[in-house]
Amino acid sequence: MAKLAEVGVKTKQNSESVRVMGDDPLIASDMVTEEYPGFPTDMQAQFMALATQAEGTSIITENISRTVSCTPRNLRAWEPTSKSRADAPSYAAEVR
How many CA atoms lie less than 13 Å away from 67 in the CB half-sphere? Predict the structure, then answer.
């Protein structure tokens, strides 16, 4: 929920549901996947989709999984940048 607020998404919560409202422009924000209580890898793809709608540049860093949520054909540039904790290559790409 904190990450949604950081990118400009408004939410309302009660004991049974979460209401998401996106009436303001989205703001770019970096994201790093981590073990609990950090940002979960299962939400990486959804955050990546959200980041494509934000103004500015978001950097998404995968630290847990050996797989990524998109393939080279979906990206404008795809190149290895570093190694993660699991010794899997990390990739950087510009999505348009």
Answer: 6
Q: What is the mean pLDDT of residues 2-25?
A: 90
**pLDDT tens, 40-85?**
888 888 998 888 888 888 888 887 755 555 555 544 544 445 444 4
Helices marked H in the chain: 2-6, 44-51
Cα separation of 80 and 94, whole Å? 13
> CB–CB of 8/28 below 8 Å?
no
Question: In this predicted structure, what is the pLDDT of residue 14?
Answer: 95
60-61 and 31-32 strand pairing = parallel
Quick check: pTM over 0.70? no
d(CA 31, CA 29): 7
DSSP string, 61-85: E--S-SS-SS-GGG-S--EEEEE-T
- Is residue 55 within 8 Å of residue 26, measured between CB atoms? yes
